[in-house]
Amino acid sequence: MDWFKRKDKNIQTDQRKEMPEGVWIKVPKTGETVHRREVEDNLWVDPLSGYHFRIGSEKYFSFLFDDGVFEEIGQEIVPTDPLNFEDRKKYSDRLEEYQEKTGHSDAVRVGVGTMNELDVVIGCMDFDFIGGSMGSVVGERLAMAIDHAREHKIPLIIISQSGGARMMESVLSLMQMAKTSAKLAQLEEEGVPYISVMTNPTTGGVTASFAMLGDFNIAEPEALIGFAGPRVIRQTIGRDLPEGFQRSEYLLEHGFLDFITPRNQMKGELTKLLKILLHKFEE
User: Fold this and answer.
1) Cα separation of the two ends of the chain
2) What pTM was estimated for this model as a whole?
3) Cβ partners under 8 Å of residue 82, min gap 6
């Protein structure tokens, strides 16, 4: 059988090899393409450039909790549309769309389990659900997480990724800033450790409340962290912003963060910090 033919000094084949969709991933930082399996095996971090792809609660829980095993709490709290809000579409329809698209009922999940044999409560936001926006359900689930940590004297970790408050819930979403902050004050009074982990992006009301209130505030490399976005700030002050403004490295240099921790070191670093806070650290 003749599989090959010569044409214009190039060898060609009549049999085309189809490349399965999604096998190769483009790295936004470098423009290079890497094999999906290589990125997955490295916790969705590009091995060459260190670029951290955004991941959600499902993946964070899978490597932070021992064997990926945890008990979820707060999932019975689901969003409604108390204001009958409508812009380009009804808020109720938007909720249904994102619930179907993501498989989550809202933008945060809370798990209870062990991390390197330490009991922990972890709340993790999902940016894919309406930009990780903080509405009433996000605030209530995080309040439940804080209460559970306080009542059971279990350390709390919150992983933030958010565009800010959820505009479709108006003042109801803004109230969550005060509620979560007040709950964290109660947690501090009980002496229960809280570590805040900021990922790309952490902005708006989330930054202005629980994300910056940790006993330790840490972030992944090159995460965008701030209240308003760079474009809004630039338009407001009418000046160019410093290089790397609002990125993790800039915030660390100016005292807003305690550490920057790559994702593949996150579990070990969190464990070390908690052992220090719990007075269980061994030399």
Assistant:
1) 70
2) 0.89
3) 136, 169, 172
